[in-house]
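Weekly modeling sync, notes
Attendees: S.R. (lead), two postdocs, one rotation student

Agenda item 3: backlog of single-chain predictions. S.R. asked that every request posted to the team notebook include the full sequence so nobody has to chase files. The rotation student volunteered to paste the first one in as an example of the format we agreed on. Action items at the bottom.

Example entry:
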Amino acid sequence: MIPTIDIPTLSSIAANFSVAAKLTRAEQAEVLRIAQGYACKDSAAAADLSAETIRARRKKIYRKLQVSGSNALIAALLASALEMIRSGQRVELVPGLMSDAATMAGPFNRSHQAPVENPQA
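Predicted structure, as returned to the notebook:
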């Protein structure tokens, strides 16, 4: 089973991480979807946008954060989380960001749920 971070905690870490880069709310929500493992087409469906719009948004995020791609972004996000913990910074819910990410269960969370058996079968 893949370890996961709950969305409120992840949103706080992502918001802290993206302050210096001045990411928009939409870009912050995309960082959350990247961290949850969403492919461009899945993120596009979740955000009700085209896959091309998501690809362009991701490129802009990578440029702003000076990372080479999603793996480097996740590594930098985790490093930021560790720095928050090391410095004793509180992890708090970011108002407004959760509304952008409210329906994000994450593909890994969904795919690792135990199947439900039908007792009437």
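Discussion: group reviewed the output briefly. DSSP finds seven helices and no strands in the chain.
Action items: rotation student to repeat for the remaining queue; S.R. to check formatting next week.
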